[in-house]
Amino acid sequence: MSGKSVEEIVKDINSTRCVGIEITNNSKHFKLSLPATYAYCGRVNIPPDPTIEKGQKGVSVFIKTPLSAYGCVGVLSYMFDDQQISLLFSNPLDQLKYNVEYALYIPDQTTPTDEALYNNMYYHLLETKSFTKASLGRGNATLQIVTDQMEVTATMANEKSKAIIKLQVGDASSTPFSPN
């Protein structure tokens, strides 16, 4: 995105609700690849990068569908070596009824990024070592999941109905190098 920050990109988006996602790959060993998206409501405005190389950043943006009564809600997934990282985001139109929320999930096995994954992350999963969720309606929170292979950390801010999520993925401190 021509060197622009996610904040600059989102500022220029003409939509009443949007979610800008910046992913930083801090891994020394693995790239992020095979992105997949699911939009419960809204749509992809700037698609995720096909790969995010070691030491690089990627940006994607989801926006509310024009003239709809809904906001911008969905899931973005990437593969990190052989593990999936899924990020749920919700920037609803009616923020009196619904909270701005986000969640991280590292499933035990690769899972399609579809309505079933969205429903599972939004409604059913409970806090575990592989799933965490936060609502900005009850204060800001940093999300973090640590596995044997990786550390994933995310923050979310929402200003003037434009949410920004910053996700950082890196090697777990005990991850040995194993070339593919």
What's the overall geometry? globular
CATH domain class name = Mainly Beta
Residues in β-strands, percent: over 45%
Supply the CATH architecture. Answer: Sandwich
Explain the overall architecture.
The chain is mainly β and 180 residues long. The protein has a single domain (6-171), classed as Cytolysin/lectin (Mutm (Fpg) Protein, Chain: A, domain 2). It is built from two helices and twelve strands; from the N terminus they run αββββββββαββββ. The strands form two sheets. The protein has a six-stranded mixed sheet. A six-stranded antiparallel sheet has the order 4-2-6-7-8-9, covered by helices on one side. β6 and β7 form a beta hairpin. The model has no long low-confidence stretch (mean pLDDT 91). It is found in: Nematocyst; Target cell membrane. Its main location: other.
Topology of this structure?
Blueprint: H1 6-11, E1 18-25, E2 32-41, E3 43-46, E4 51-52, E5 57-63, E6 72-80, E7 83-91, E8 101-105, H2 115-124, E9 131-135, E10 143-146, E11 150-159, E12 162-171
Subcellular location: Nematocyst; Target cell membrane
Pfam families: Anemone_cytotox (PF06369)
Keywords: Membrane, Nematocyst, Target cell membrane, Target membrane
